[in-house]
Write a structure and sequence with these properties.
- The complex is a heterodimer of chains A (about 350) and B (about 270).
- Helix content of chain A is about 80%, strand content about 0%.
- Chain A is an all-alpha fold and about 350 residues long.
- Chain A starts with a helix and ends with a helix.
- By secondary structure, chain B is an alpha/beta fold.
- Chain B has two domains: about 5-70 and about 160-270, 3-Layer(aba) Sandwich (Rossmann fold), CATH 3.40.50; about 85-155, no CATH class.
- Helix content of chain B is about 35%, strand content about 25%.
- Chain B is built from ten helices and twelve strands.
- Chain B has helices at about 40-50, 70-75, 95-100, 115-125, 140-155, 170-185, 200-205, 220-225, 230-235, 260-269; strands at about 5-10, 15-25, 30-35, 55-60, 65, 80, 160-165, 190-195, 205-210, 215-220, 240-245, 250-255.
- In chain B, the strands form three sheets. A six-stranded mixed sheet of chain B has the order 6-7-8-3-9-10, sandwiched between helices.
- In chain B, α3 packs parallel to α5 and α4 packs antiparallel against α5 (about 140-155).
- The radius of gyration of chain B is 20 Å and the shape is globular.
- The chains are: A mainly alpha (about 350), B alpha/beta (about 270).
- Chains A and B meet through α1, α9 and α10 of A and α2, β6 and α3 of B.
């Protein structure tokens, strides 16, 4: 009897200490359900509110021309684009937090967002009618150059996570200044520039989806394949090398994936901040430290967060809208403050 | 599994820390590396694994150059535990030990029964099974050290290199860790460990290698290396060696400073 009690107590305490049990499925199931609700609301609400039967007929019947067009040409692509943006940024943040061993790392703070944004705004100034795929390619180029610069500056025989973080902060400030300098010197773009700088999904369509999915889907696959290695890399370079990880090569691969994912998100939505920072923390709370679960969970949470933020951006001052990035920052910043103060 | 070091030269902080060292560790040996601070012990150990690229020479694992083998392949046969790793404090012991299975797992492969067995065995062997669900950061120094040993054991290595596995441990935990290494050695694992403590080296190692200035000064049985003249040459300190009253094994001690003794005696009277 005493033996049984001890065993029970031991395993219960263990479960409590590990924070696992059925929580991951429960939380992720909740997030998925929330996502479905948000997806429905995103399709139903907007300048013209659709009833459930209108949503259904618009989704399924081409003969319902107005609702079909609203749903298939405006709201659905925007929802899908938002999912891609959220998932890409969240996964990039997750990878960067792992590779720098710094819970404050994210594509914005490490300057990758700004590098992609500088490429994007340069392209906009040089060629205002640049096609969507050209913009996506320019952003990817910028993101990769940013990630490459980050690596180059942080590398001194080997890469230290601390140098990586410091270099990122400096690059972020520098590229950010360059973007503002560029945009403010070309007055005609001021209106679009504001949406770009704050980050938002205004006008996102299937072309954005097609132009960026070719980067985001392989990027996601790459992130997932790197998850096991990232787990080991988190134990420190010596331990990782002892377990058979080529540490610097792995870091380069991770930075490339982050560059690609971040750039694709910037190509769609501009400079969206805080998604990459906050989502991995939410995911960690749900599924723990294993990146093989953390990365898919971050993607799901990122997609949901951006869907929610975009819905809010569209309805808060409807029929007009505010840039979605303001909502993500408005939610993200207080959440970060909460983390810093109460969760260490 | 045999580990051969052929005229290995390693640099540390721009200086030649290990200078053309050659040695061979036969399968099933338990070797202690001793020497003063800065003699190149840790660097040698890093060079014997893949942690540090040699400036010259090579390391052979069963006749194959470890630099020409895939990193994961080396990690399946050879584990290295560096001095008190600092990362991973938010992981539970079980999560940590699972990561030792990395070299055995395919990228998209699900954990196999042999992975589970290896993890459970490693936690049992290192006596951390009862701590499996605790976070590493909440453990004592001794418990944490044993968790890191369990990580290395989960690799199921045939050769294990350890850098001062007993540092920061109290005497009981020191002895327990050494007993664990001896048990593993008796089960066939080849063990090379850097040790500061000559007492532990004399009691547990079958062979002691003493380094000075990046070269091997003495290499032989504990009785041969734990010799007053040899130790004096290595550590630059007058030493004496007395037999353990129970086992007869050599115990090395610094010789009392005659000046201090002379000063202390009248006061004691």
């Amino acid at each position: 009897m005493a033996g049984m009690a001890t065993t029970f107590d031991g395993s219960a305490r263990e479960r409590a200490a590990r924070g696992r049990g059925s929580r991951p499925l429960f939380v992720l199931g909740g997030v998925a359900a929330l996502f479905v609700v948000l997806a429905y609301l995103s399709i139903a609400y907007g300048a013209r509110t659709l009833s459930p039967s209108e949503v259904w007929s618009g989704l399924t019947r081409e003969s319902d021309l107005l609702n079909h067009t609203i749903i298939w040409q405006i709201r659905l692509p925007r929802l899908v684009d938002g999912m891609l943006v959220g998932a890409a940024l969240a996964v990039a943040g997750c990878l960067l937090q792992g590779v720098t061993r710094n819970p404050l790392a994210d594509p914005t703070i490490l300057g990758i967002t700004a590098a992609a944004g500088l490429a994007s705004s340069t392209a906009m100034v040089i060629e205002p009618t640049i096609p969507t795929w050209g913009m996506a390619a320019a952003c990817t180029g910028g993101g990769l150059v940013g990630a490459g610069l980050l690596f180059f500056i942080a590398w001194r025989g080997q890469i230290s996570p601390i140098r990586l973080a410091l270099a990122g902060v400096a690059l972020s400030a520098f590229f950010g200044a360059a973007i503002v300098a560029l945009l403010s010197s070309s007055r005609t773009f001021l209106q679009t520039s504001l949406g770009f700088l704050a980050g938002g999904l205004y006008g996102a369509d299937w072309r954005d989806f097609r132009a960026t999915a070719v980067y985001i889907l392989p990027g996601m696959a790459g992130a997932f394949l790197l998850a096991g290695r990232l787990n080991v890399l988190a134990l420190g370079d010596d331990v990782a090398a002892g377990l058979g990880i080529l540490t610097d090569r792995t870091r380069v691969a991770i930075l490339i994936v982050c560059g690609v994912l971040t750039a694709a998100a910037v190509a769609i939505a501009g400079l969206v901040s805080f998604v990459g920072l906050v989502c991995p923390h939410l995911a960690r709370f749900a599924v723990g430290n294993d990146n093989r679960r953390l990365i898919p969970a971050s993607a799901l949470i990122g997609a949901t967060l951006v869907a929610a933020a975009d819905l809010a951006a569209r309805v808060v001052i409807s029929p007009s809208e505010i840039p979605m990035g303001i909502i993500t920052a408005g939610v993200g910043a207080p959440f970060l403050l909460y983390l810093v103060k109460f969760r260490g | 599994m045999k580990l051969e070091v052929e005229s290995l030269t390693l640099e540390y902080a721009g200086r030649r820390a290990v200078d053309a060292v050659s040695l061979a560790v036969e399968s099933g040996e338990m070797v202690a590396i001793v020497g003063p601070n800065g003699s190149g012990k840790s660097t040698l150990l890093r060079g014997m694994s893949r942690l540090q690229k040699p400036a010259g020479g090579r390391v052979l694992l069963d006749g194959r150059d470890i630099r020409r083998m895939a990193a994961r392949e080396v990690a399946r046969d050879l584990a290295i535990l560096t001095q008190s790793p600092e990362a991973g404090l938010d992981l539970t012991v079980r999560e940590l030990v699972w990561r030792g299975r990395y070299p055995h797992q395919g990228i998209l492969q699900r954990p196999s029964a042999s992975d589970y067995e290896a993890v459970e065995w490693a936690m049992d062997a290192a006596d951390v099974a009862h701590l499996a669900g605790r976070a590493l950061g909440a453990l004592s120094g001794g418990e944490r050290q044993r968790a890191w040993i369990a990580l290395a054991l989960a690799q199921q290595p045939k050769v294990m290199l350890l850098d001062e596995p007993t540092s920061f441990l109290d005497i009981r935990h020191q002895v327990e860790v050494m007993h664990l290494l001896r048990r593993l050695n008796h089960q066939g694992m080849t063990i090379v460990t850097v040790l500061h403590d000559l007492l532990l080296a004399g009691r547990f190692a079958g062979r002691i290698i003493a380094l000075t200035n990046g070269r091997i000064a003495f290499d032989g049985s504990p009785a041969a290396v734990l010799d007053p003249a040899a130790l004096e040459a290595v550590f630059g300190l007058p030493m004496m060696v007395i037999p353990d009253p129970e086992s007869g094994q050599p115990i090395a001690l610094p010789r009392p400073d005659p000046a201090l003794c002379a000063a202390a005696r009248p006061a004691a009277d």
